Structure formats: structure tokens, C-alpha cells
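Q: Got a minute? One more chain.
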Amino acid sequence: AWDLTAVVLRLTPGMSGWSYNLHLQGPFTTWTSGAPPGEWAHGIDVGAVSGVTIKGNLIENVKGDCIGTDGVRNYGGTQQAVNVLVDGNTLRNPLRCCVATVWNLDRWVVTNNLMDKPVPYVTAVDFEPEIGGFVSNFELGYNKILAGPGQTYGYSDGFAVSMWSPSSTPGANVYLHNNYGSWPDGFLNSGGGWTNVVNTNNVQGSAPP
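A: Always. Here it is, folded:
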């Protein structure tokens, strides 16, 4: 039901390099109601990589996340995905998230992307490390984020960014700044346990502040 086999592109353990100028398209069309199947069917599933740039891609209509990180666990055990740049991509109409962070991530920069998230299920950017996962040293800046309608399904739908985890210590050093766009319920919906989260200069509008 989770469609792990339906990932469009996998980045496997130890990989370094670029994923550039690709058009990755999934089978998703429209969402109706209820928790739908296919949440692991990501456009790019990032495993325990070390030094990867994801740039200039169009990723759309996937049943999972446009860029997800379940692969850290599924293809890399307890390792980390480290030193990752996600820049200048168009991430459009995923069933779940444009970018989702689970398990162990360190030193990520996500900048200058268009995140078009019309589906009222989860959020455009989701920080949600599972128990045993830890997200650290993450920068999210200068992205245009278009969030869907608010609170249709009850998963922070109308926010641009959500930070939640079943873990009591999910992560530290997250810098959210200069993002712009539209989000009917606010920019950030944050749960507890996060350390040193800076949320500044994120504004509604058609241009970065």
C-alpha cells in the first residue's frame, strides 16, 4: 500500500554527484479524502548520500513526496544523508509533500525552489523525523511556497511548513528565512522538542522579502 517500489528515482547509500535537469512524473491526479496509499512513492527518494546536488528539475504528480528521505532508512540503515543542496527545482502537485525530512539528515540547504502544493494533505515542507531519526543543520530559504487550502484533512494542511515528530528530540539548528508565497493558516506549525529553530522574514506575497 505504501508503494515503495514506485519511487521514480532512488539516490543510493554513499552516492555523491548531481541530479540535474530531469523531468520526473508520477501517476497522481487528484485527492479526494482519507489517508491515501502511495506515500513512499517519491519523485526522488534520498538515501544515505554524501554530497549531492538536486538542481533544476521538474518533479510533479507523485504519490509520495517530490523529494523524500525514507531512503535513509530503507537503503542506508542508521546512516545519514549529509551535505545535500536542493536548489532551483519546480516541485509541483505531490499527493504528500514537496520536501519531507525523516530519519537522519545533516547539513541540507533548500533554496530558490517553486513548491506548488495544492493538495490539502500534510504540508509543502514537512520536518517529521521518526523515532531514532534526527534532522540537524537545515536551511530553508528563498523558496516560493504555495500551500493548499487549510485544515481539510487535519495534517497542518494550510501551513507552508510543519515540524512534528513522535521523537522527543527530533532535531536542531533549523533556519527558515525569506520564503514567500501563500499559506492560508500561517507559515509554520511546530510541535515540541526542536532546538534552535530560527523562523524569520517569511512573508506572503509574489516576491521574496
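A: Helices lie at 71-74.
Q: Perfect, thanks.
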